[in-house]
């Protein structure tokens, strides 16, 4: 019998393949290693990221689901809650112990109830509604607050880039 | 590409140097001497040697690992960097015997270290991949074998060279290889555990625990090794700077391992004590997928106070990290405490529940009852009630006792006996906790037919607490598990009774002594005339149905308590002070009861009398008319002093 983490990841993969949520594709990069996944997220409609397809990498710890995975966009991103290197900063990806921004209540943190699907859906909603209080990318947060047009322009540029149009 | 060109250049340089030497010297030996004498040639040779070692390493890696994964490569690069820095630090320490041979040994050590790290990563990878081929096993096993042989050899080599040649840099090597050997052992244990897990049909829940303890034990070994080495190095050479980083990491991981073990143990303890197993009905009622592992729960599941159900093993690993419910984040550590304090009345009732039914320890209350009711009224509330309910109760002045009240007499009883100068009685245990009000009410017995006592202990069956509805499953289970406590309570109760009997006999003796010797002292005390005959006489003619079967047991129990009671004699003054502290009526009742105690074994022919006469003595918080009745009765008794005089 394989380890519990592996079994759970396989179950989640099966679930995601059978009932894929809209606009999200995810699965292991290589089926020999279920602890590294690749995900494709389409930008939510009606937002400045609409139409974009954003690739991201998910790395799971060996004690998943007790600890959260790490998620990192592998394309260029400009968003208040995404670090310049692509790492995603949302509360459900943080273990209850650590609080990098010092504002998250433990109720919105990681727990084994969360899943890849929920993470990706949260990321989609994060793309639609940035939380400008947690400044993973301070420039983006500032621009989102003060100069929305410029922000939209940059976002559109990124969308075009992910589609290979520019 | 770059590696290939470096290899090629170094090969070309080496051939050039060697060819040049041969071209000049024509013979083997002179050309070797020529090369070794020339620094540039030696540099080329060293570079060539390094390249050869790297190539060997690549070959070994191909053989034992195949293609390295990206994560493994990253890991390797990180660790190599640290290892190289530490090696350079170690060089500074041994700069005196800095020699090519020494450098070669360090490089070899580095290489072996790299293989150990890779082996560790590989074995960890076993948990991550669904496909583990036989070639993987073959590679890991042979690699571990080779590595352990090499480590052993080098440890041995270092040991022998140290023993023969004294302390040198060989100590460092010996120590490093010891650490590497530890790592191999650790990897081996992990590999075995993973393999067992992979080959078993069912999930192996305890694997995590085994891994945890392996971690602790190996960590301990490593810490001990590092400290020994540090001490040796400080004594022989100087402070080994290169040692501090690995030592720090080892200490840190050891501390973490211990912490994990503690947390895990606590989690297991909590799991076993605080939370009930989920019943099959609960499992089938709910959607029975464990939210942690997303698998069905068929067995071994636990239910949290918030009614969420999880696999026991899943919950245990989660509780190791966090003490909250995974689903609703209820803090499960705070809940039990809250429940204990908030539900205190209920908890108190619960705690009493196992006691109460078990308290009456003897099968024949007909005889025991008087002692109980008179001397230690709080002890057997049920009996009391049981006797009150007896229909053929002949005494006209029989007071009707509210069952919850008798404990009020306890203080006077215990203080009366404990404050006297009787060493034996000072050790009297604290009186039984009073029953919670209202607790006695629900248990009543049907009117007593001739053989009323239920076997085997003649105790009332465990009565339901006032309404089972408000108890949750856990509390009910706890009540079920109270059999052992019940037995303990019975034993305790028997001891209490014995001590009470002793006390009663003592008191009785004091009274009789006082009455016989110092009648003048006692004249003004209303209790004077209460001699055995006085109290027994009026009641002797009133047998009750319940006491007919009682005498044999009583005579077995009571005489045992008598020998110890013979020595101490309280002064009458002492008695007086006590009697003045309490309302005279209740006090006298109590004392009268103790006289009954004294009597019963002696007057074998009339055991019934004690049973019935004692019942009035329990009364305390009573209505006025009951008080009135008792007072009249007292007067009757005290007005009958003839036998005394």
TrEMBL record, chain A:
UniProtKB keywords: ATP-binding, Nucleotide-binding, Transferase, Ubl conjugation pathway
Active-site feature positions: 89
Keyword ATP-binding (UniProt): yes
Coiled coil regions in record: none
UniProt EC number: 2.3.2.23
SUPFAM superfamilies: UBC-like
Pfam hit, one: UQ_con
Parts of the chain that traverse the membrane: none
UBC core domain segment(s): 4-164
Record's keyword annotation contains Nucleotidyltransferase: no
Family to which this protein belongs: Belongs to the ubiquitin-conjugating enzyme family.
Name of this chain's protein: Ubiquitin-conjugating enzyme E2 G2
Organism listed in the record: Thrips palmi
Lineage of the species this protein comes from: Eukaryota, Metazoa, Ecdysozoa, Arthropoda, Hexapoda
Automatic annotation (TrEMBL), chain B:
EC number assigned by the record: 2.3.2.27
Composition skew (Basic and acidic residues), residue ranges: 587-601
Annotated segments matching region Disordered: 344-365, 386-433, 534-645
Lipid bilayer topology: Multi-pass membrane protein
Residue spans crossing the bilayer: 43-60, 102-119, 131-155, 167-189
GO molecular function, one term: zinc ion binding
Domain of life: Eukaryota
Pathway: Protein modification; protein ubiquitination
InterPro entries linked: HRD1_E3_ubiq-ligases (IPR050731), TPR_SYVN1_N (IPR057992), Znf_RING (IPR001841), Znf_RING/FYVE/PHD (IPR013083), Znf_RING_synoviolin (IPR058051)
Gene Ontology biological-process entries: ERAD pathway; proteasome-mediated ubiquitin-dependent protein catabolic process; protein ubiquitination
Ranges of biased composition (kind: Low complexity): 344-356, 534-567, 606-620
Catalytic reaction list: S-ubiquitinyl-[E2 ubiquitin-conjugating enzyme]-L-cysteine + [acceptor protein]-L-lysine = [E2 ubiquitin-conjugating enzyme]-L-cysteine + N(6)-ubiquitinyl-[acceptor protein]-L-lysine
CC annotations in GO: endoplasmic reticulum membrane
Pfam short name (any one): zf-RING_2
Composition-biased stretches (Pro residues): 391-409
Family: Belongs to the HRD1 family.
Name recorded for this polypeptide: RING-type E3 ubiquitin transferase
Organism, as annotated: Thrips palmi
Gene symbol of the encoding locus: LOC117650278
